Amino acid sequence: MLEKSDTAILPSSTLNHYQLDCLSTLVYDKDNEKMISKIIDLAKDYSSPAIVCCQENAKLYPFQNVITVASRNDLMAYSKNLFSALRKASSLLPDMVFIEGVTKENLGIAIMDRLEGVCKKKFFG
Fold first, then answer.
1. Looking at the chain, which terminus has fewer C-beta neighbours within 10 angstroms, N or C?
2. Residue 32: Cβ-neighbour burial (10 angstroms; 0-12, 13-18, 19+)
3. What's the rounded Cα separation, in Å, for the pair 78 and 9?
4. Superfamily of domain 25-124
5. What is the pTM of this model?
């Protein structure tokens, strides 16, 4: 039984719940084409990169390991699918995971907060 001073901690309420078993880089630019270009440019330096992105951008990346989260226009679905997409990317054993950021508005604020906690490297345009 929980005492008043005890708190129940849900696994998803801690940032280490979202940590990957590999290196990751968060990239965001309001200009979608610039964001994609930056990720492609950075990923060329790795032999086995993985890309975590929105559905609309998936076919624009010339890499084998591209994992889609959800439509960039449906941040509720994006937030629900993000954890499983990150785990799937990690399971591919890439030498780097590149993650597209989302607009920091409404639910996007919480999504970016989680992503910024996961990624040690960040590029914002």
1. N
2. middle
3. 23
4. Threonylcarbamoyl-AMP synthase, C-terminal domain (3.40.50.11030)
5. 0.85
